[in-house]
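writing this on my phone so excuse typos. first protein, seq and then structure
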Amino acid sequence: MQLATLSNNIFIPVTDLCRNRCSYCSFRRDFDRAKIITRREALKLLVSAREAGCTEALFSLGENPWDVDGFSTLIAPIGHSDLIDYLVELCELALEQGLLPHTNAGILSDNKLAELAPYNASMGLMLETTAEVDAHKKSPGKKSNLRLAYIAKAGELKIPFTTGILVGIGESLKDRIDSLKSISRLHEIHDHIQEVIIQPLDPKPGTPMAGLSSPHISELIELVSRARTILQPSVALQVPPNLVDPLPLLRAGANDLGGLSPLTPDWINPERPWPSIVDLKHYLREFDLQERLPVYPRYVKRGWYGRKTANLIDSLGGPDGLRRK
């Protein structure tokens, strides 16, 4: 029976302030509506996650919010002037509650990436596409050269890394293939890409791309099949089960379902609820569905994870590197 994996997580939106204005995004807020999570709010979520048996704390935030006018006013009540310093504190809270941080913080400077890495089991950044698309015209952080350079820097630091492509935002099939090849080339050099997400566009009401359609399942099946031939066998291929039927995509070569939360919505796609793990195990019964940690077994065995997470990984991980049963 073929193995398929998932992570049991809590999704913590640190702030929805963002310098980018992607035409498909409903997560981002302007300063007058933006929020930053308080310690009390974060701790409440982390305690609930521990009690629910989660192992991963997914911290997600808008990219470079400190570049947006009004950021200093937003963060002032937190008692920090530097968001990454505050994010380190939140990661420490997660570790104290027995949860392994995985942070998607957008493009960071080399110093900030190195500051945050010790407190994370793994980290991530979606490449999305190497193509120039209209959806990214107002998004300076979505230039592919910047994102590829950041992913490479994570490789130099031996950070187990999650990336992926966003399908249906104006790119061609060739663009999708080129994006996957770019990821493969980085992995060939640094051997740090633990998973690649094939994520379909889910058009959001009120966004400039609201009138588009999600990619057809046949497109995704073909893309997953092609991705499996492009990416190295060591790289997991992830599909989100709240956005697409995972069964035909697992049959096509995907082998991971990402992080699912029993407590919080997918804040990027909040109107798409997570299926329960119990329901997925029944629906996908032709696969051996196992729970993993936010760091994959091959990197657990290498010791490629933040040094502050080592004791907790030893405690939560079994001999096979998956979650201890």
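second protein below, same order as before
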Amino acid sequence: MNEQNINIDLKRINPYFGAAISVDCVVFGFDGTELKVLLMRCNMEPYVGLWSLIGDLLRVNEDLEGAAKRILKRRTGLDNVFMEQTKAFGSVDRHPLGRVITIAYYSLVKISEYELSNAPEYREAHWHNISEITELAFDHRDILDECLNLLRKHVKEAPVGFNLLPPKFTLPQLQNLYETILGKSLDKRNFRKKILKMKILKDIGETQQNVSHRPGKLYSFDEKRYESLRKDGFIFDLN
């Protein structure tokens, strides 16, 4: 290829380098009763004052996961948070400053274990009940809904929500967790039948203490048994 052809090729492909990439983090939190998401105030026109997801542009020297970790740490003070990539969002007009393609990640944390930083740059981050969220900046409502649908799919296919419970929990507590994440009521008998049939809960031989109602039997998640069963082809299924 001669020099003239190289110049022509560069001119032809140059427009394809005119798009920016960002990362948006959907941080779901469970406080024992409600499913929440972490949002912050947007300061960009025309969305000033609206709530938005936690996000930023990808830097030239970082990969996507590294960017997601940096963004969470910088914007909220949260560190060492599990993240899973959801999908890319690339509508042409999704960002007011130009062509920006964003990659969404979602996390699921136990709110009591992650305290937001009190530093001035973090004070605009707040937890919001999923059921109370209406309009969000940019296309963040679409991103939130997509991540929520994926989370709901995952909790029915793997025990990803067990870390949100105390080490010892009752079956009603476990059912409440699933109902909160799934956003619907579950039949009590059917739920218990399915979860106990999997044999991944350990009856620790204890009951609740100091409660005003009839004490419930306490269980723990048997992670070692679950991993052993999974290697043998076991499928976690709450569908």
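The longest strand covers residues 20-30. thats all i got for now
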